[in-house]
Amino acid sequence: MKALFIGGTGIISSAITSSLVEQGWELYLINRGNRSESIPAGAKLLKADINDEELVKSLIKDMNFDVVADFIAFVPSQVERDIRLFSGRTKQYIFISSASAYQKPLSDYRITESTPLANPYWEYSRNKIACEELLMSEYRNNGFPVTIVRPSHTYDNRSIPLGVHGNNGSWQVIKRMLENKPVIIHGDGSSLWTLTYNTDF
To answer: 27-40: per-residue pLDDT in tens?
Structure first.
């Protein structure tokens, strides 16, 4: 199998990158090369900023893929760019959305495929919803082969799964605990959330 990841060194994608290399996939990563030490031997780096569409187009001009996965698309214009770049070049395009796109507040604590997408509280979520709508329209109208995945709070050994931690990252919360200082715990315990370790994803 031949795959292209946009990103490939983040919390979710690094685990998948390692897994696919171990399985013998032909794996390409488009990223800026800022975390080259995180790229496992066997993965091929196409060093570029994905937003430099002309450069990316030249890098993949003679290539087709079984799957393209974008881990760093957050707004519709980025998805539109991907559609231009990968239409006719991949058998499957995977868009990493977010569980935060589901209805807030939930009408039922059980989330299913029929749970509406609506989040008036967070622009990030509304942008993910807009990306999904754009992709589904492209699938219906032009057959663009899309799969949408909505992970919940995903973490790895570089982070602690906390909703509130401030500008210095999640480890400062543990530091405060070790120093017997108070920490902020959000909510009243009634908001259910799923935590997913990146290799489980």
So the answer is: 999 998 787 777 88
The matching CATH number, chosen from 4.10.320.10, 3.40.50.720, 3.30.70.100, 3.40.50.2300, for 2-151 is: 3.40.50.720
Q: Are 57 and 85 in contact (CB under 8 A)?
A: yes
Q: What element of type H or E holds 82?
A: helix 76-86
pTM of the full structure: 0.88
DSSP-assigned letters across all residues of 83-134 = HHHHTTTBS-EEEE--GGGB-SS-SSSS--TTSPB--TT-HHHHHHHHHHHH
Q: Where are the domains of the chain?
A: 2-151, 158-195+197-201
